[in-house]
Amino acid sequence: MVAWARTHGATALPCPTDGVPSAPAAEVALFSGDARALLQLQAALAERPGAVVPAYRWDGNATPLLPIVVERSISVNTAAAGGNASLMALD
């Protein structure tokens, strides 16, 4: 059984041999294995305190990745630099 857990600020964490993501802030689990092991992982995730952590099965082909992708955007207020964006350049 192979399982990965995504956490805030980390790409992926391998799960320990018991199949339960050890990261307390895991947001999602991506699982590769048989259906019985997936049910065991889901049961273990349900017993954890905190937010519900969904587990998605990865078969290597037709797995929808949209549920495990997070889009973030950053906006820079150039008016805070007096309207001169070059003052905020890293060069």
Structural description of this entry:
The model has no long low-confidence stretch (mean pLDDT 69). The longest helix has 13 residues, at 35-47. The protein has a domain at 1-59. A hairpin with a 2-residue loop joins strand 1 (2-7) and strand 2. 14% of the residues lie in helices and 23% in strands. It is an alpha+beta fold. The chain contains one helix and four strands. It is elongated. A four-stranded mixed β-sheet has the order 2-1-3-4, with helices on one face.
Calculate the mean pLDDT score and round it.
69
Separation of the first and last Cα atoms:
47 Å
- Taken from the alpha-carbon principal axes, the silhouette is elongated
Q: Which secondary-structure class do the elements indicate?
A: alpha+beta
Total number of β-strand segments?
Answer: 4
Enumerate how many helices there are, as a single number. 1
Tell me the helix content. Answer: 10-25%
Would you identify the regions where 5 or more consecutive residues have pLDDT less than 50?
Answer: none
The strand order across the widest sheet is 2-1-3-4
Beta-strand content estimate: 15-25%
Listing every helix as H and every strand as E from the N terminus to the C terminus, the arrangement reads: EEEHE
Rounded Rg: 19 Å
Oligomer: single chain
User: Main β-sheet: number of strands, strand sense, barrel status?
Assistant: 4 strands, mixed
Would you summarize the structure shown here?
The chain is of the alpha+beta class and 91 residues long.
